[in-house]
Amino acid sequence: MQVTPFIHSPRSFTAAARFFVVCCGVFILGACGGGGSDSNSSPGNSALAVNAGPDATVTEGVTYTLSGSVTGGDGTYTYNWTASPTLDITHDDTSTSSASFVAPSVNESTSYTITLAVNDASGNSTSDATIITVAPINIDPVADISVPQWSGLPANNFPGGVNIVLDGSGSSDADAPANTNAIASYTWSQTSGTNVITGVETNLSTLSITTPIANDPQTLEFQLEVVDSEGASDTALVSLSIQSEAETLPEANAGFSQGVFSGEVIVLNGQASTSIPAAEPLQYSWERSSIATSSLSGTTGSNQDNSDPASTLVSIKAVDDSDALSTFAIAPAVSSATVVTYTLTVTDANSNSVEDTISVRIQPMPTALVNDTGFLQQATNNALTQAQQNDFPGQDGQRGSDIIEQNGLIEKAGRGKAGFDFTRLNANGDEQDADAQTWSCVRDNVTGLVWEVKTDDGSVRDVNFTYSWYSEEVNGGFEGDQVGMAATCLLTNCNTTAYVAEVNSQGLCGFFDWRMPTHKELFSLMHLGDVSGVAIDEDYFPNTGAPSSAPLWYWSSVPSADGVNSDDAQNSWALDFDSGVDNFLNKSTAARVRLVRAGR
């Protein structure tokens, strides 16, 4: 008798076994009573049957062992485990049923159908399945409240009437599923103190509140509840101490520390506020620290008083307006690098005072090697003004020789407007008195250059004569216009080289080394702050030309890369002493010339 093989599940195993026993019983009875059948049948001749094991429930992260059983077949078996959904099953020896897997992390209970397939050496095969359910283990989230630190106060202490933000974004969930928010929801509540959360968003990761203003100190308590994506929750509490109205101090900010030269502007642009309306108005006061006597310079000005280390220069205010929030000071003259402090004191109507200090490093003004621009005006968004502009620091009118001279801290060898320092020279090159009525040249005591002074007498140096640009040496590949047909002068060829040769042949001021100035040298004469006339100090350089609709172009010795034709520079740089701008002109252009010599 041949028994038909069958596939069963664990839940039907008992019934199947009973059926199998009955069938076997029938078979045995038949054999016993049949009289010719072999009653000693081998296992290989019986049906192949497999049991994958019982259904089970395990928790995530647990290592679960699989073990099935098999009957029938020829006794040599090959085992193979599979799972749906897929699991990483460890099964090193397929000749045994023993295998294992680690229960994966899950957000909710998840069932896996695990199938054991068996083959014997005779080609028989069968399979059975078991259901393994993996249950999640949820780690509770951790609620966390971060509290800002208020400057000058202990932790969790705050003035009245200020805005603070409690931050719960640091809350965490150790087993948060990938690609999901660790915290699913935030809920803020106030558990003690004056209510400050009415009308405030309480379901965000942060809570923004304004501390109460009261006659007495306050204690506020807040709770944050967080819930993770698996439904677990945690809470955190924080307690804040709030100052009374009278205890709450104003705030003061003295601005930024600076480095300046003696005589330059120190910007004192403070900020002050109070969160208590009844504490207004605020009062302000600026004060400079003492300066050691050894650091004060005694060489600039006759009005300086060095007898008191804390004294300021009599001719210069330590602070322009010491009771203004935004004001300025003039850096005192010092003999060596000196650090001084400026302190802003803010006092409220409750007589509470706070201070803030900035450091200012003052250095002696070094010997200037180039002239400043002469510009002392300062700009706002829409205007020019002589007034100090603290909201626009670092302007030309706040820095450099011009403002230092205006503040009386430059000692000149000669005279001149703004930071310029000129000396008049006679026809022999000797110094003239400052009030001399005639002179031929001017020495710039800053740059060391000696300059030609133009005439208006029709002689060779007359201001109205013009010249084309011409140079046989440094010319950018093109010598220029030798004839100067558009120019007018007393020479045969009205060009710059011819003019230089003529002046040197005459020995102007006793010198025979006159030359064309460079762009930088010529620009050093520009007085951009003199808006009433031409852009030069006419007390020393008369006959420069009259302001008009036409520019007052003066040639420099520098060819221009603009206007290149076949690698030859057709243009050269010139400066307009009417507008103060520079530009490149074609070398045939008729323009004026002012010669220079010497220099540092």
TrEMBL record:
It comes from the Bacteria. Pfam families: K319L-like_PKD, Lcl_C. Residues 441-597 form the Lcl C-terminal domain. One of its GO terms (cellular component) is membrane. This is DUF1566 domain-containing protein. It comes from Alteromonas genovensis.
